[in-house]
């Protein structure tokens, strides 16, 4: 797909999802600036930190290796995985994409052929071809396994997604029940609740963990080198753990309720200059 068709396809998806015609030449809203990034930003750090294996060194250099979830192995081919050497519980991931996660609660009950088929499909996938997100274009397809984090109730912990603009958190979205009753709560930079919605309704009973302020400061350290980055963290066992860095939140197609928040978030984001390969005429700061 050439660049003109990519832009047309992105505009169509954004218009259908957001309900307005996106301006990708003079972007103002958060989603418009995400769209601009998809089309123009070629900062090599985007690709480096999108790779779920390579990002570990990046995070360790800035925040210490103790925030990294223990790594159990990495593989380029499914036939290289020695399943019997993995622990009872683990998470299998694709290093080069999103929605490539398998939660294994009991390895002894695993349907190995089915998992191999699924993981092989991941290895054949290139998200640049389907979503147009440049950072995925040249990533080497690999698999990794990490220890499974569990909360105090033995469930999958809440996912704290910090929206960091040039080293400052402006929004926190906390996702719970992602594999069942999926909810999402929103908080401002002071960790005060916000009446904000995207795709999921909030959980009125959710309470932020005591480590949330530590997590916020950690997210700001990890995201300091980007004009915008979403830094995902977990609070488990009294500690803060790194999840991933995301540079294309919602593929520029996640509306806000109220819609005015789209522009508010856009005002926090001053796009980088053309030094990463974008046209200097395609960018205007708010």
N-to-C order of helices and strands: HHHHEEEHHEEEEEHEEH
The outline comes out as: globular
| Rg computed from alpha carbons, rounded to a whole number of angstroms | 19 Å
Order of strands across the biggest sheet?
8-7-6-5-9-10
Distance between the termini: 31 Å
Structural class: alpha+beta
β-strand number: 10
The percentage helix is 25-40%
Mean residue pLDDT: 93
Estimate what percentage of residues fall within beta strands. 15-25%
Number of discrete domains: 2
Uncertain spans: 274-286
Helix segment tally: 8
Largest sheet, in brief, is:
6 strands, antiparallel
Question: Can you walk me through this structure?
Answer:
The chain has 286 residues and is an alpha+beta fold. The protein is built from eight helices and ten strands. The protein folds into two domains: 196 residues, no CATH class; 79 residues, no CATH class. The chain is 28% helix and 20% strand. Helix 2 packs across helix 8. 34% of the residues are buried. The C terminus is likely disordered.
Give a topology summary:
Blueprint: H1 3-18, H2 30-40, H3 44-50, H4 54-63, E1 71-75, E2 90-94, E3 101-104, H5 112-123, H6 127-131, E4 143-146, E5 159-165, E6 168-176, E7 183-187, E8 193-194, H7 212-222, E9 229-236, E10 239-246, H8 260-268
State the gist of this model.
By secondary structure, this protein is of the alpha+beta class.
